[in-house]
Amino acid sequence: MTDISADTLLQTETVAIRDVACGGACRHKSAEECAAATHLVFPYRGVFVRHLGSDDAVGEANQVLFFNPDEGYRISHPVEGGDSCLDLVVDDALLRELAPPELLQDGAATAFRPHRLRIDARSQALVALLRHSLRREAAETLEAETLALTLVRRAIGERTSHKAGASRSLQKLVDRAKLALSADLARRWTLAEIAAEVGVSPVYLTQVFRQVEGMPLYRYQLRLRLARALDLLGRYDDLTALGLDLGFSSHSHFSAAFRQAYGRTPAEFQRSVRLR
């Protein structure tokens, strides 16, 4: 795919970390691609769909996607804007040590059974902390490796991740709602509007979304907005403007939601990774 760029942020015996961006020129399914190693992909900006056989996985900032070796897949961008992801390849022996056995396929190589897991807010913060720190050369190698392994442990942990549990048809319905939310993070949707976008009743949408993702629709949208804030903190001097641009009603609303999710205010997070 010609509109992809990849910057290597760290390369050690323990972990390889790349910052991968795709312009999203391919709105329909791309040509088939295949990974040579097991990749853990953390989208942090934009959205894409990964097609693996008959399974479709929406890649956005609430998810980690697993790209197993020798599994052919295709990528599409139904929403304009492309995507950016933090891509991790962990030493195979270490990855097998970190992963719960029930998540792994049988075989000599380490490969995952689920195609994706929903990550928690702390994992999102670790993605941003790791990327910003490496980008600004604010983290030494030992610290970055430790942060990376902590991120992997948390992203696939039994208590800190969530595997969607539903039929394929229900998953596709929820995925349509995710794509609608991702297309305009700042939009203040009503439940009726997004239900109409998906083509079901508001009651049915709320029930199915909670069943599949384990959290209410409005909280899922909030987490997408906050993840985008983590990405943009280095570009804004005016944090009130950042909050308003992402659809929050005020700076206090934005700051309180950010603190509740990540344990610190936006300004404190900026200072912690030397963004300002």
Summarize the structure.
The protein has helices at residues 92-98, 121-135, 141-155, 168-183, 191-198, 202-213, 217-232, 239-245, 251-262, 266-272, and strands spanning 4-11, 15-22, 39-46, 48-52, 55-59, 63-67, 74-76, 83-90, 116-119, 161-162. With 276 residues, it is an alpha+beta fold. The strands form 2 sheets. A 7-stranded antiparallel β-sheet has the order 1-2-8-3-6-9-10. A 3-stranded antiparallel β-sheet has the order 5-4-7.
What's the structural blueprint in terms of helices and strands?
Blueprint: E1 4-11, E2 15-22, E3 39-46, E4 48-52, E5 55-59, E6 63-67, E7 74-76, E8 83-90, H1 92-98, E9 116-119, H2 121-135, H3 141-155, E10 161-162, H4 168-183, H5 191-198, H6 202-213, H7 217-232, H8 239-245, H9 251-262, H10 266-272
Antiparallel strand pairs: 1-2, 2-8, 3-6, 3-8, 4-5, 4-7, 6-9, 9-10
Helix pairs in contact: 2-3, 2-7, 4-5, 4-6, 8-9
